[in-house]
Design a protein that fits this description.
354 residues, alpha+beta, 60s Ribosomal Protein L30, Chain: A, Phosphoribosyl-aminoimidazole Synthetase, Chain A, domain 2, six-stranded mixed β-sheet
């Protein structure tokens, strides 16, 4: 499970774990069964708890501000320990940005097997500290256990003004749907795990996976934005489904407008696909209608593809479209200024892919 170069042992972390990144998530259908009887303790100050499928818990501090609290961890999605730490940290911090908030503090969650040296775990923590520094927060401690497979993540606290809080179940009919990153990262990660990826694509993958969704904080200040979430383990289709169902709506997704990594299309044609893609699709396919004009096999591979530290999905009213586009342009996101769909009244199917 490792190799030696110039007498230096290289540990490839993905070879020590069954799952990878947000593809480790329990399927939406199973998760729903697990949480069916789990409700938050009644508390008038709890704005968002586990009765919602949102990105974080939110607690009203009764001063116009709210505390955001979240945790996220997973098994290695890349081989390099330092990069794994960066990716897991960015992914966890994203949940605060997805609520329109500002991250304040993090603590680490580490599981490590004896068969991998502690020096590799130190690299994981070093990578996480680098990303925390980029987000201007401390990694102020944490907890570790010995485990059969390596895993890492963060618990993160943040703050948000109540008027800037964004949830994933408050979209409105007529809202336009924007995303801030292409999809297909799960396919690229699987190509690496199967050792069929090129070196150039590995470099690209590591860069994309460790970027911060810090634009979410600014998106929160746009009043016409009615809902927001990040696209992670359930894929674009799964998180759009959560937003639509939570809002009592359906969504039209214009497939030709969905940004997709061209590199991912290349590996999909070679039948490289995460196992979690099938699991995700089986959990949601009865709620999705795909038009005959859409390349079904490509859509099947891309829409439920589990994203790790994926981009944000934003629902905005037509009146706020130009504000959001202006923000995207100022933030270097010019390629994402076109909506990929819109919300409609509730229909027989929740998502209509056209």
């Amino acid at each position: 499970m490792n190799s030696a170069t110039n007498n230096t042992t290289i540990y490839r972390l993905t070879e020590y774990s069954k799952g990878a990144g947000c593809g480790c998530k329990i399927s939406p259908k199973v998760l729903k069964d697990i949480l069916s009887e789990s409700v938050s303790f009644p508390d008038g100050s709890l704005i968002v708890g586990n009765s919602d499928n949102d990105d974080a818990a939110v607690y009203d501090l009764q001063n116009g501000q709210a505390l955001i609290s979240t945790t996220d961890f997973f098994m290695p999605i890349v081989d390099d320990a330092y990069s794994f730490g960066k990716i897991a940290a960015a992914n966890a911090i994203s949940d605060v940005y997805a609520m329109g908030g500002t991250p304040l503090l993090s603590v680490a969650i580490l599981g490590w097997p004896e068969k991998i040296p502690a020096t590799e775990a130190r690299k994981v923590l070093a990578g996480a500290r680098e990303v925390c520094a980029q987000a201007k927060i401390s990694m102020a401690g944490g907890h570790s256990i010995e485990s059969a497979e390596p895993f890492f993540g963060l618990a993160v606290n943040g703050m948000v003004a109540l008027e800037c809080l964004k949830r994933n179940n408050t979209a409105r009919e007529g809202d336009l749907i924007f995303i801030t990153q292409p999809i297909g990262i799960g396919i690229l990660a699987t190509a690496q795990k199967r050792k069929v990826i090129t070196e150039d694509d590995v470099t690209f993958l590591l860069s994309e996976l460790s970027s911060l969704n810090s634009i979410g904080e600014a998106v929160g200040s746009i009043g016409e934005v009615s809902a927001m979430t990040d696209i992670t383990g359930f894929g674009l289709a799964g998180h759009l489904l959560e937003m639509a169902e939570g809002s009592g709506l359906s969504a039209v997704l214009e497939y030709s407008k969905v940004p997709i990594y061209e590199r991912a299309k290349h590996y999909l044609k070679q039948r490289v696909m995460p196992d979690a893609t099938y699991r995700n699709w089986n959990s949601m396919s009865d709620k999705i209608e795909v038009a005959k004009s859409v390349d079904f096999m490509e859509a099947f591979g891309m829409l439920p593809d589990p994203q790790t530290n994926g981009g944000l999905m934003v629902a905005v009213s037509p009146s706020g479209k130009e504000k959001l586009i202006s923000l995207f342009e100022q933030s270097g996101l010019q390629e994402f200024v076109h909506p990929i769909g819109y919300f409609t009244e509730k229909k027989e199917k929740t998502i209509l892919v056209q």
